[in-house]
Specification:
Order of helices and strands of chain B: HHHH
CATH topology of the largest domain in chain A: Arc Repressor Mutant, subunit A
Order of helices and strands of chain A: HHHHHHHHHH
Largest sheet of chain B: none
Helix content of chain A: 55-70%
Number of domains of chain A: 2
Number of helices of chain B: 4
CATH class of the largest domain in chain A: Mainly Alpha
Shape of chain A: elongated
Helix content of chain B: 55-70%
Oligomer: heterodimer
Distance between the termini of chain B: 55 Å
């Protein structure tokens, strides 16, 4: 839990070069940065505020905040983490003005204690030989043709499954698995503990795997 | 399969998969997890399915994830909480 986060906890040499260029007033570097993060910033801002229009304003304010705070960037976090932290502060302030803000951890999804796999697929806990062992084991996907797993329709199923998850689970799986953020970055942004982040991710991934299994088994049947 | 209480059941293994992939298990837990996996084709297939699910999620277009609907839920929740009888 300590070493895996290290690469995101401090600025890379590339980050430091970017900040130097920004401080020197390099507009192209600023435009590149905006292009790279704008869409993600909007999506994250939408976690806090009601409408796309307000999210756009929050992101505008974030970029202004980034420029104002540049002299104070010390490289103790990655540039991305630092930018998203500024966004989270802007968005929280704005959300408090819009309505009272609620900690993310109290949102639907964390109290979901549904099992990862339907209990009917396991033998009973008092089974004489194999308690809690698979009754209906998952089929290996290794034999599936690679292009079936990577087909557009398979991706559609995964997307549909993600889009039906409770809000907090959907947010965590989309940041982690779709956008490729580290757990540390997600915890930092959402203000949740590693443990809570893992619970949300686990519930989310388990349901998405199940949806995919139902789809692929249905095709094979 | 032994009946030793030390042995993880498949039902327990599927709940540890994320912690395993996140590197969040203790060394002892990780050993028990991997020992189970080495003997259990069902759980090995399950872990493999989970890994492939994550790979497919990584190929999705982030724009396609419906976070606006998420936020409608969040706001519905806030409305409920702020307006509800339990409110401060």
């Amino acid at each position: 839990m300590t070493s895996t986060e290290a690469d995101h906890s401090i600025a890379t040499p590339q980050d430091l070069r970017t900040v130097e260029a920004l401080r020197a007033g390099d507009e192209r570097v600023f435009r590149d940065l905006v292009e790279r993060y704008h869409a993600s910033l909007i999506r994250v801002a939408l976690m806090y505020v009601r409408t796309r229009a307000v999210a756009e304003e929050v992101v505008q304010d974030t970029w202004i905040g980034v420029l104002r705070s540049l002299p104070r960037f010390e490289g103790r976090s990655s540039l991305r983490t630092w930018i998203f932290r500024i966004l989270a502060n802007q968005a929280r302030t704005r959300a408090r003005r819009e309505a009272r803000s609620v900690p993310f951890s109290s949102l639907a999804g964390l109290d979901d204690d549904s099992p990862a796999v339907d209990p009917d697929r396991f033998l009973a806990a008092d089974h004489p030989a194999f308690p809690g062992h698979w009754a209906t084991a998952p089929r290996s996907w290794a034999a599936l043709p690679e292009d079936e797993l990577l087909a557009g329709e398979t991706r559609e199923r995964v997307l549909a499954a993600i889009n039906t998850l409770p809000a907090a689970q959907r947010t965590v799986i989309s940041l982690r698995d779709v956008e490729g953020w580290s757990s540390g970055e997600v915890c930092d942004l959402l203000g949740i503990s590693e443990g809570n982040q893992r619970v949300l991710l686990h519930r989310a991934r388990s349901k998405v795997r199940q949806a995919l299994e139902e789809y692929l088994d249905g095709r094979a049947a | 399969m032994s009946e030793s209480p030390e042995m993880l059941s498949c039902r327990e293994v599927v709940e540890l998969v994320t912690a395993y992939l996140e590197g969040a298990l203790t060394e002892a837990e990780e050993v028990r997890f991997e020992e189970h996996l080495a003997m259990c084709d069902g759980c090995a297939a399950y872990l493999d399915q989970m890994r492939r699910t994550i790979v497919i999620a990584g190929q999705l277009d982030p724009e396609a994830v419906d976070l606006e609907a998420c936020h409608r839920l969040v706001h519905a929740f806030r409305g409920w909480r702020d307006g509800g009888p339990e409110g401060p």
